[in-house]
Prior knowledge:
Helix content is 30%, strand content 15%. It is of the alpha/beta class. The strands form seven sheets. Strands 7-6-18-17-16-8-9 form a seven-stranded mixed beta sheet. It has a six-stranded mixed barrel with strand order 23-27-24-26-25-28. A hairpin with a 4-residue loop joins strand 25 and strand 26. Helix 5 runs parallel beside helix 23, helix 11 packs antiparallel against helix 14 (332-339) and helix 11 packs parallel to helix 17. It is globular.
Amino acid sequence: MASNENEINVKMFSKDEIEELKKDPNIANHGRRSFLKWSAIVSSQAVVGGGVVNLLASSEARADDTFDNVTSWVYSVCGYCSFGCGLSIGVNAAGEAVAVRGNENHPTNNGRVCVKGLFEDKILEAPDRGKWPLVRDANGDWKKITWDEATTILSQKIIDGVDAKGADSIATYNTGQWTLEEYYAFGKLGKGAIGTGTMDSNTRLCMAAAVVGYLTTFGSDGPPGCYDDVENTDCFFVFGMNPAEMHPQLWRRIAKARRTTRAPKLIVVDPRYTQTARSADLHLALKPGTNLALINGLVQQIIANNWTDQAYISAHTRNYDAMAATVEKYTPEYVSNITGCPAADIALAAKWIGESPEALSLFIQGVYQSMGATDTVRMICAMHLIMGKIGRPGSSPFSITGQATAMSNREAGASSALAGYRNPYNIDHTNWLEDFWNVDRGKIPRRKPTPITSNRDYQDINSHVELMRNGDLSLFWIQCTNPAVTLPDLNKLYSYMDFNNPDRPYIVVQDIYEPMECTHFADMFLPAAMWGEKTGVYTCSERKVNLGRQAVNPAGFDLRADGYGAYADLEITKMVAEKIASMDSRFATNDGKPLVTFNSYEEAFEEWKQVSAGMICDMSGMTYDRIEANEGIQWPSTPDNIYGGARLYADGRYNTNWDDTQGGTPDKPWVDPDNLSRAYLWAVDYIEAPEIPDSEYPFWLITGRVIEHFHSRTKTKRVPQLHEMVPENYVEMHPDDAASLGVTKGELVRLTTRRGEIVVKAMVTSTVQAGQVFCPMHFADLDPQDKAIYGNRLAATNRLTMNWVDPYCKQPIFKHCAVKLAKA
């Protein structure tokens, strides 16, 4: 970054260069993602300048070439992915956000941001920001109502639903992008006031396997390592992730570490030949759905070659003999027959991991959204445990989280967890929280909440979707997430949410834009404030709690006097808590007060600190000012040891004693019967995926992400600069497969699975192997902007995916299913 705030010394693209790049037939292909043409944007914070784009934003949008109109910079953190990049929001004299720049002092990113972060201010100015609460009238059209009317209607719907079908008929499904304070407040409303166990969040689609894998191995959630491990390792084991595109600042740090004299090895496990895989010393291009077989094979080799730490195993783990016996048959040759990876490469990967003084495993959706997800996480943890490579610089089984504050949701308990990593099956844990909240004993459901999705046709697992299908939900409250894009098997989901379905629940959508995909099915819309419009904390992947301060007023702030305008999600929760408590004392504290009474986010954080004190995710040593001054603080952080949370388990003590563990009953295998705080080693066998290619559906469909867009594109499709780069969905095909079907690049291809079909453009590339195709998961086809692109074509990838979920963590296997292709 330049030293002068009003200048930016970066490469600028001219208007002619932009136009030439837009003509490139590979602009949405991974050939372009070698970063030869766009590398300046990604790695150097370049600004696309000189060109005016007039796309879906309904107005001209010009890239910001300078910071001339910035009058103040506001301290913040990025609101997209979980890496937690520090940044500042530039505000002009009119109080508008007009720029973003990286925070040079933040150790996570040292002033750099990716292409999404570069244009993050533009999500605040998109023309379709929600500003009015809305309800459907008798004709199905939207009608503006005041916040008092909206909260009255919503509260009455909740009361009526509880009376008619019970508290569990009130389903809530929230986000990975709220602040921790908002998660905590909503957990009080949902679990403490309403008493529903039908709560979940987008974290289920993103991180559930990591949560359950950690919990059932270590006794609790929480990645053991930190980002500084990147600079202290001798071997990177990158499993099911593509940081070169998905987490660019992590990739920058990996690339820099590999250029040091330490020169750590890089092993990449991915079916696709991604940018990350191209940079690897060893690429294991395994068959989709075979992750568990591969990791069992690596553990087998580590044991067979005595790359283990027997003293650590004896002192700090349980069930080693059973695990060793289970993996014994997973020889390199046996695993090669399952995964398709050469036996010699499997043996070499194990050798590098086993012989490296320090080894760092990094993993994300390619593990979590594939077959054997929870068991794969368990075995990655086991691999580190049997080598003793955990809790020290450079060694960790380190899950990288998907969304900005998914960790905060996991900590604060707004969905599938209980506040402060408490165990809903431990009566002492729930009683303490009920007493603290001043509600009756037994109000908090004594069970793990119901997950968002499953399909009883495949598995005997209940879910929000199944309850909706069967008419058992009274109300479905969707908050700042977009299941109409992100859930699997969308065609069935749409049929359950459709207004023609007499069994559908009353659907409330709380979000920042209207229209967005979920509002097509909504009975009520509540306009929410967003990143940059509120102050609160964000826990990133390394358990670091960062602070984002409010830079501008929420959308429609000038309408508040008339009862309209967007409100921050904590304020919306407070309004509903106050209204429902005034209408029915069952939803109040024992003193007749609302459960949510915070007058500020900082006040909410101070109460949360009391809830976290003494727990695994202790934040009692933190304050807003201290977090900002230190550029984030990792938990556990206590008044006596504020900055001591860099790594977990350095002392070899795990949270597996009954009083500590975050989940399960005393008879669960990970609960240490001797209270010796030992980690549990799982003995698990590979099972084939429930759907594999056959004569009717001969290809593997792999899904994933691209650097320009984020999750459901709710925000990024409204940023012209990002939309221009990848404006529509596409399918990557290997040249041999394209030739056999007579398809050339840019032609339309019909993809069909047992659940639906879409028609998208072909991208012919060797990034995918023959017999496999890849589609990004971001794209939908319901909104007017998308219909303008696709016409009558359906293009949402999740119309194809399978609603089969991991039996332990209930996370869908988005990453692979069987598909057939035809030239459209």
